Amino acid sequence: MTIFPPDPNLDALRLQLARLRGERGWSYDELARRSGLGRRTVIEIEQGRTIGSLKTWHALAHALNVPVDQLFAPLCEGHTPPAETTD
C-alpha cells in the first residue's frame, strides 16, 4: 500500500512571503529588485497564480535574509511534517 503525503499548503507559503515582504515595508518592486526577479514574477507567486521554481524561492529567501527552511516551513501548516528517521 502506498501512502501519499498530504498536499503542501501553498496558500500558507504565499502568505508567508507576503508577511515577510510586508514586515520590511517593501513593495513588489523592491522585493523584485533585491531578489533579481521580475516584478510580475513576484506578484504572481505572492498572489498564488504560479508556484515558482526552487531557484526562485532561493532568490526570495536570500533577498528577505531568511533561511530557505524558514520560508518553506508553512508548506506543512495544517498537517504533521515528516518525522526524522533514525537509521
How many alpha or pi helices?
A: 5
Determine the mean pLDDT. Answer: 91
* Uncertain runs: none
3D shape: elongated
- Spatial extent as radius of gyration: 14 Å
Mind describing the biggest β-sheet? none
**Total strand segments:** 0
Helix content: 40-55%
Approximately what portion of the residues adopt beta-strand conformation? under 5%
Distance between the termini: 22 Å
- SSE order: HHHHH
- Helix/strand class: mainly alpha
List the helices and strands and how they pair.
Layout: H1 10-23, H2 28-35, H3 39-46, H4 54-64, H5 68-72
General description of the model:
By secondary structure, the chain is mainly alpha-helical. 53% of the residues lie in helices and 0% in strands. The chain has helices spanning 10-23, 28-35, 39-46, 54-64, 68-72. Helix 2 crosses helix 3. The radius of gyration is 14 Å and the shape is elongated. The protein starts with 9 loop residues before the first helix and ends in a 15-residue tail after the last helix.
Short description:
The chain is mainly α.
